[in-house]
Amino acid sequence: MNILDKIVFDKKKEVVLRKSIIPMSQLESSVLFDRDTFSLSDRLRQSTYGIIAEHKRRSPSKSIINQDLNIQDVASGYEDAGVCGMSVLTDGKYFGGSLDDLIVARASCNLPLLRKEFIIDDYQIIEAKAYGADVILLIAAILTRTEIKQFSELAKSLNLNVLLEVHNEEELHKSIMPSIDMLGVNNRDLKTFTVSLETSKLLSDKIPDEFVKVSESGISSVAAIKELRPYGYKGFLIGENFMKTDNPGQEATNFIKQIEP
Ligand SMILES: O=C(O)c1ccccc1NCC(=O)[C@H](O)[C@H](O)COP(=O)(O)O
């Protein structure tokens, strides 16, 4: 079993347990469920820099990245840096994240928040809204076209943005539909962990213009942004490069200063 299959296998069990602890109806009556959301796709369209900065403690490919930080400081640091949005990993077993991270980030900044999760059930989308997210991630590699349609339409009905992540042409063809806002190309192969910016370059002209293009993973320099921009990318999701430092917000500030408009 590859790592992605393992993550999904565990996630299915986790979601069953979560549902048995907090019923969907309870999530839907929470304070945060009924609120206006921030649009990440609008901010990316208007932005000169397009940085989406991630909170990531550890990962299957790198093990520990940084376990010593306070998510409140990370969120407010990213906001001060001028990023367009923040990605919060909520998976516990493989990434050391949690839904508590999402709620603390929500309380600490007014950035659009992406719930970075392995979504395989409607329940997780309701959870995302109830814990303060504005955007959900759907990963084409683990979903059928029917599931992508069902989950993205549910998200849109809740005023959440949808970032659909692909890694190859087959996943892209399967996923194109009007209920998607942003198309993210993951430069990391989630089955082998190989990272190459060439993946974003190769897929760029196959993404229809109506979707905001986001390049994800393995972006560790301003040079990479300059390399990807001519391919039409408006968003750049960066995790480890910021999180491996003592002060991710300051690192994001320095990074953004070096990007020319
Ligand atoms: O990062 C991993 O090792 C990973 C492994 C398996 C599934 C997903 C994984 N990462 C999620 C992400 O997409 C990244 O955290 C995100 O794009 C930021 O990447 P990076 O800037 O390289 O930290």
UniProtKB/TrEMBL annotation:
Domain of life: Bacteria
Molecular function terms from GO: indole-3-glycerol-phosphate synthase activity
Catalyzed reactions per annotation: 1-(2-carboxyphenylamino)-1-deoxy-D-ribulose 5-phosphate + H(+) = (1S,2R)-1-C-(indol-3-yl)glycerol 3-phosphate + CO2 + H2O
Swiss-Prot/TrEMBL keywords: Amino-acid biosynthesis, Aromatic amino acid biosynthesis, Decarboxylase, Lyase, Tryptophan biosynthesis
Pathway info: Amino-acid biosynthesis; L-tryptophan biosynthesis; L-tryptophan from chorismate: step 4/5
Keyword field contains Transmembrane helix: no
Residue intervals passing through the bilayer: none
EC identifiers of the protein: 4.1.1.48
Every Indole-3-glycerol phosphate synthase domain range: 4-252
InterPro entries for this protein: Aldolase_TIM (IPR013785), Indole-3-glycerol_P_synth (IPR045186), Indole-3-glycerol_P_synth_dom (IPR013798), RibuloseP-bd_barrel (IPR011060)
NCBIfam families the record matches: PRK00278.2-4
Annotated family: Belongs to the TrpC family.
UniProt protein name: Indole-3-glycerol phosphate synthase
Species assigned in the record: Winogradskyella pelagia
